[in-house]
Amino acid sequence: MVDLILDTILDNLKLLPFLFLTYLIMEWVEHKTGNFTQKLVKRSGNFGALIGAVAGVFPQCGFSAAGSGLYAGRVITLGTLFAIFLSTSDEMLPVMLSEKAPFPLIGQILFLKVLIGLAAGLFIDGVMRMRGRKQELKLHELCDHDHCHCEQGIVKSAFHHTVQVAIFILAISFVLNCLIAWIGESAIESLFVDHGIIGCLTAGLIGLIPNCAASVMITELYLRGVLPFGVMMSGLLTGSGVGILVLFRVNHNLRENVKIVGGLYAIGVMCGILLEMIF
Fold it and tell me: pTM higher than 0.85 for the full model?
């Protein structure tokens, strides 16, 4: 139990710099840039999804957590958020490197995640524009909900937001870690008996678990030869680490959050099935 608590605390400490920097940027945006930033967000177009897809491949899930916060304030678009979530590698890259996986394989996986994230992001933003959905900054609503007292300075306000979200993530992560330890990884591995469509559906669900254990498990199972390529990709595409947790904490539209998770799952599973057919 002590090891479980320590692991949970250490994992969450790694997120603090990302969360604090995210809220610091958001506070600066609100206080310093005004209408200029709103115009910049509207004109960012394809670059938002491209930047999100590329940045998401870096190890750990800090950027996906940051992306959730930025989307809650509508600093980035919905398509950019999807690009970040789909390309987020979480613990996949460190596991691959530690297991001495071939560099061409690692490059192929990262390339596919970026490509799928970018394509999905561009498509979603295109649909939103066709529907005439305009995006306005919601930083004031975020601050009002969290009672952060922004008038006391952007650093203090950013710190206040960071503490609130960090405590929420810490509590949920501890519960998830306890459940995984109680159920046992071998029992979860047994869910991947089917390597076809059912395997992709299952891997996609496992990937949605907002915990780094999901990406570690899926990557290890693939390297051991238990999972085929397409099934692994389903799990890695839906696996955005704690980004989903942060989304439910800071974006106060529950219905929208559920749709985002559903969309993420659908894209991950469909791409996994397609890749399973190709490979």
Answer: no
